[in-house]
Amino acid sequence: MEQLSQCSCCGFRTGCRTCPVCYWTNDDDPAAPPADGSNGDLSLGEARLNFALYGASRRRYAELVRAPRADERP
Fold first, then answer.
1. CA 66 – CA 62 distance, rounded (Å)
2. Would you call 50 exposed, middle or buried from its count of C-beta atoms within 10 A (0-12, 13-18, 19+)?
3. What's the pTM?
4. Distances in Å between the alpha carbon of 10 and those of 1, 22?
5. Measured between alpha carbons, how far is 56 from 10 in angstroms, rounded to an integer?
């Protein structure tokens, strides 16, 4: 069975470019400055804190995300 990629923000293995669990978008170039990436000016550290507080990479995404499935747990 193929192992899905792990989200950099929430850690769940959804295999999606934009994670449906936290709504973080994994950039093709993780070394790119935050303003040049898919997540605008949001840093990964800020997104992780937001996920811990709101359950989403940004507070405004809290209604767009879904709970992780059992098979997506790290």
1. 9
2. buried
3. 0.83
4. 22, 6
5. 8
* Tokens at 19, concatenated: 């994670």
What are the tokens at 43?
């840093």
Give the Cα separation of 8 and 36 in Å (integer). 17
pLDDT in tens, 12-35: 999 999 999 999 998 765 555 555
- Under a CB-based contact definition with an 8 Å cutoff, are residues 46 and 27 in contact? no
Residue 9 clears pLDDT 80, i.e. is over it: yes
User: How far apart are the C-alpha atoms of 71 and 59, rounded to whole Å?
Assistant: 25
* Residue type at position 42: L
Is residue 25 within 8 A of residue 39, CB to CB? The reply is yes
